[in-house]
Amino acid sequence: MKILDIPQSGKRGVTVSQGGHYGQISRALVIPANPRSASQLAIRQHLASIAANWRTLTEEQRNAWSSMAKSRNTQSRLGQKGSMIGLQLFVQINANLMLIGQPRVTDPPVLPAFPDLVPTGLVITNTAGAIALKLVAATDVNDYTLFRASPPLSQGRSKCSDFRYLGLVPTPAQGFADVTSLYTAKFGVPPVKSKVFVQCNQNLSGFEDIPHEWSAIVPASV
Q1: Are residues 42 and 20 both part of a single domain?
Q2: Is the CB of residue 53 less than 8 Å from the CB of residue 91?
Q3: CA dihedral 54, 56, 59, 60 (to 10 degrees)
Q4: Domain that holds residue 60
Q5: Which long-range contacts (CB under 8 A, 24 or more apart) does 22-26 make?
Q6: What does residue 24 show for φ and ψ, rounded to 5 degrees?
Q7: CB atoms within 10 A of CB 120
Q8: Is residue 201 part of a domain?
């Protein structure tokens, strides 16, 4: 439930406090489900392996990661953030490289200059019951433009925080990149009148730029 209180986050006994879209909320502590799916276990194993690799670096390599990490901030929480530590940056960069099928690195990469993001919007069509999701993309995307999306949601939703990585944006054709197969492989065909939220951003050398977000409502058949 929504409450009026000082900003706070975390567990206290059987109560959890956190920020919500519309203010501070408090809820009962619930142990999250842990289905231990094959994909979950694979990611956990990979992250553990990356963290273990930290110990195999030379002291000079660890110092280089720690030096770069000082200029990289952690995710903001309750309006507060701080610089990362070398291990955090090492795991983040190599996990991002894993996402796009690139090999791990032991030395910190040079911070890239990101080009403008090519996708500029989302269009959903429904032609004789065939629903298609396409990103507006006037030119070719770079090789590592990421596509994330939400499950189908109520069209009354104005915000979404549940995005899943579905793959790389495919090559555009005639001004659109068709992401229908990426979406339906994960979530199935979205129902008519539901709303779909998507995000795109770029992954270069393990660094990601700020995601751009769009949404669209699945129309009735025409």
Answers
A1: no
A2: no
A3: -90
A4: 38-99
A5: 25/1, 26/1
A6: -70, 135
A7: 13
A8: yes
Q: Which tens digit of pLDDT belongs to each residue from 52-105?
A: 999 999 999 999 999 999 988 776 655 566 789 999 999 999 999 999 999 999
Residues 84 and 3 in one domain: no
**For residues 199 and 212, is the Cβ–Cβ distance under 8 A?**
yes
Same domain for 138 and 211, yes or no, is yes
Residue 201, both tokens: 């951003």
The answer to whether 162 touches 178, Cβ cutoff 8 Å, is: no
What is the CA angle 171-173-176, rounded to 5? 90
Residue 45 located in a structural domain: yes
Q: Is the pLDDT of residue 42 over 90?
A: no
Q: How many domains does the chain have?
A: 3
